[in-house]
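Lab notes, practical 5.
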Amino acid sequence: MALKSLIREKFFFNGLNVEKIPPFKRKVNTVFQKYALFPHMNVFENVAFGLKIKKLDKNVIEKKVSEMLKIVNLPGYEKRSVDSLSGGQQQRVAIARALVNEPEVLLLDEPLGALDLKLRKDMQTELKNIQQSLGITFVYVTHDQEEALTMSDTIVVMNNGVIQQIGTPIDIYNEPKNAFVAEFIGESNIIDGIMLKDFLVNFAGREFECLDKGFGTNEEVDVVIRPEDIELVGVEQGMLQGMVESVVFKGVHYEMMISNQGFNWMVHSTIMKPEGTKVGFSFNTEDIHIMKKVREE
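Output from the prediction step:
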């Protein structure tokens, strides 16, 4: 399914401008953040609602609803009241209600936002499996960076309605186009720098080789280095030196803030250095990402 926006407010599905198609004829369905289930209907009636509007045969409706409830792991729940279901089960009913109409595109508006962390992670896996088994396009809106990275084939990062970058999760994370993308997708150290020439940048008081080119001579740039790409070393062995200002245990690693020339570097490491310790830290050439500064209008 080819889905793209050519100009503002014009959307094309497989080359067809859907603006010219009445909303009720568009093969698109939506799953809302708040589920929007009908409380006076049971599970079967909720899922069958769209099929009944289409005036399909009763036997066809029963077959389609039964098949869809199996896909969302709710077989046998047909007669249950939706108010008796857990949040995760209600979300599955909402997904089944949308999918049973066989849309070509399914829009999901932060559908897992109301769930707790464990259930949200479980539902991420289930949604991905459902999408792959049905083979239809899911357009998934989320503010959760981890959710975007783990569930997507393609990510579109937007700021105030303007597309900042389109790419695979790996591309978006490893090669952000600007500081907004770098900060939005994962944690980042964003430092002011000067691109001296191709493959050479100055920041934090010294020059570093990098892999970037195509910038102007002595152009002001943003330098991005991910906290997990920084290695703690001895003071004398470090490319840079600093003082540990704070330490937070995050479970799989420690998050340390290390001050250097007025900038607090975020470092993620399994090695903990206590507050007040002077340390050296280094990073590889390929971990230095250079991007143009975005000027505020």
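Observations recorded by the TA: The radius of gyration is 25 Å. The longest helix spans residues 117-134.
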